[in-house]
Structure formats: C-alpha cells, structure tokens
Design goal:
By secondary structure, the protein is of the alpha/beta class. It folds into 2 domains: about 100 residues, Leucine Dehydrogenase, chain A, domain 1 (Rossmann fold, 3-Layer(aba) Sandwich), CATH 3.40.50.10860; about 140 residues, NAD(P)-binding Rossmann-like Domain (Rossmann fold), CATH 3.40.50. It has 11 helices and 12 strands. The strands form 2 sheets. A 6-stranded mixed beta sheet has the order 2-1-3-5-6-4, with helices on both faces. A 6-stranded parallel beta sheet has the order 9-8-7-10-11-12, sandwiched between helices. Helix 1 crosses helix 10, helix 1 packs across helix 11 and helix 4 crosses helix 5. The longest helix has 16 residues. It is globular, with a radius of gyration of 19 Å. Pathway: Metabolic intermediate biosynthesis; chorismate biosynthesis; chorismate from D-erythrose 4-phosphate and phosphoenolpyruvate: step 4/7; Aromatic compound metabolism; 3,4-dihydroxybenzoate biosynthesis; 3-dehydroquinate from D-quinate (NAD(+) route). Belongs to the shikimate dehydrogenase family. Homodimer. It holds the Pfam family Shikimate_dh_N.
Length: about 280
C-alpha cells in the first residue's frame, strides 16, 4: 500500500555527507508501506560542521529515528544520551532511536554483516578469518565475528597500529580476545591465505577499477569464502568468482543492517523479502 503523508506521518531518515547515493530510502520506505506504517524515510545531507545542529533537529522535529553513515558514525556518539553495548566496543553508531528526545545510539552493521555472511556459511564458529582494514567497518565486522565464535581473526591494515588498537579496545569483550585477534602486515597476507577460511575486505580498495590489488588475488583458493563490503563486484570478487569461491558484495550487509534498524525503531519484524526486492529493483 502507498503511504499517504498527513499530520500523523512519522519521519525517519539517514544523515550522511554525501548521501544522495544512499539506497536505504528504497527499502525502508518499501517496508513502511508494506506493513501499513504511516511513516516516511528521507535522506538528509549533513555536513560535518552541521552535525550537532542536525542531531538537535532530531529532538526538535520529533524525528523518530535515523541511520548514520560516513563521515558521522564516530562523531555522533558525542551528541546522544546513551550508547548500546555493541557501540561501546565498535566505537561507531549507524542507528539512532529517538524516545521523546532521549537519543540512543546503536550499531547494526555487525548484525548486518553476520546475517549476510550466513547466506554463504551457516556456522561461523571455529572459522579462521582474514579481515582487511582497520576502520569503523572493520570494527563492526570483528565484533560480529567474535560474537559468532570465530576461532581466529587476522586484522591486516596498511598502518598496523590501527589493527593493534582494535585488539586493545576489544580486550574486554572476551577473556580469549587477545588469542583470537592478531595483527597482520599487508605484506604477509599471501603467506597466510592457506590458514584462513574467510576473506573480508572492509577497505575502499576496489571502489575504482584502477585501485591496486590488496594482495595477489591469484592466490585465492576455491575453498575460500570472500566478502567485500563495497556495493559492487570488485576485482577481488571477480577473482573469487573465477576461482569458483562463494562470494558476496556489500548489499546483503546493507539490507540486514537496515532491517535491524527498522526493528529497533518500530518494534516490528522487518519484511526482509520486501526490502530485498526493493533493493534489487
């Protein structure tokens, strides 16, 4: 059913800069419409210097909830009333719920990544994973993998200190964290590939075809499961496909993180198939 905007329509949205490319309005509005919820989801282009005013606008305008995307995921934490358990470790938020002006920050990226990965491999427990990158997305991926019982997670990054920072920040998550997590120089990826089951790229490398490869992709083996959180078939994923690997781009993660946000805001089960169809149309 189509939403009729009136005096009772609730407003949701996404804060980012830039944000016009966002696919979130497509599937969030489809979900509201399908469930007959009188709500609309809008993109809000928010410059970094305007973030504080924009967050105050959530309260002032009674916006019910927003997603947060780059470059605001870390900075927004200074402006909310409460942060959820996963945000304490990940250090970034992509979802805010407004309860009468009281703003709670969540991170649904970890959930989204794991739900997407489970389309390829049902049981992550005991798996050995290579995570390339050490930014906010990497932190969400690592958090989800630890929670799912991954046996070993190698964090590889150009600046190794950032990988070491993740290990330090996650040390209180589990008493086994320091045994599970290990920093890895990019130069050592190829010699480690024989030891891992899953390869995850959380960097922006591959967004452009002229980007230099992260490592020698010919070393990928058919048994590897390869995920790139970029929303396209990157050179990494093309190489994985050629090898016959199970592979996935970033769209499943986008879908499931958005579905979890929807459930946090509305208290209703997200219509995944409707959201998936809207995203693929």
């Amino acid at each position: 059913m189509d939403t009729v905007i009136n005096g009772e329509t609730e407003v949701y949205g996404i804060f980012g800069y830039p944000v016009k490319h966002s696919k979130s309005p497509l599937f969030q509005n489809a979900a509201f419409s399908y469930l007959g919820i009188n709500a609309v989801y809008l993109p809000f282009s928010v410059k970094p210097e305007d973030l504080k005013n924009a967050v105050e606008g959530i309260r002032a305008l009674s916006i019910k909830g927003v997603n947060i995307t780059v470059p605001h995921k870390e900075e927004v934490l200074k402006l909310v009333n409460e942060i959820s358990e996963e945000v304490k470790y990940i250090g970034a938020s992509n979802t805010i719920k407004n309860i009468d002006g009281y703003l709670i920050a969540y991170n649904t990226d970890a959930y989204g990544f794991i739900q997407g990965l489970k389309e390829l491999v049902e049981n992550i427990s005991g798996k050995k994973v290579l995570v390339i990158g050490a930014g906010g997305a990497s932190r969400a991926v690592v958090y989800g993998l630890i929670k799912e019982g991954a046996e070993k997670i190698y964090i590889s990054n150009r600046t190794l200190k950032r990988a070491e920072d993740i290990i330090r920040d996650f040390s209180k998550l589990s008493r086994f964290t320091e045994k599970i997590l290990e920093p890895l120089p990019l130069s050592q990826i190829e010699e480690l590939l024989c030891n891992v089951d899953i390869i995850v790229n959380t960097t922006s490398v591959g967004l452009r075809d002229e980007d230099r490869p992260l490592f020698d992709y010919s070393k990928i083996e058919k048994r590897h499961i390869v995920v790139d959180i970029i929303y396209r078939k990157t050179p990494l994923l093309k190489a994985a496909e050629e090898k016959g690997c199970l592979w996935q781009d970033g769209l499943p993660m986008l879908l499931y993180q958005g579905a979890r946000s929807f459930e946090i805001w509305t208290g209703k089960k997200a219509p995944i198939n409707i959201m998936k169809k809207a995203l693929s149309d």
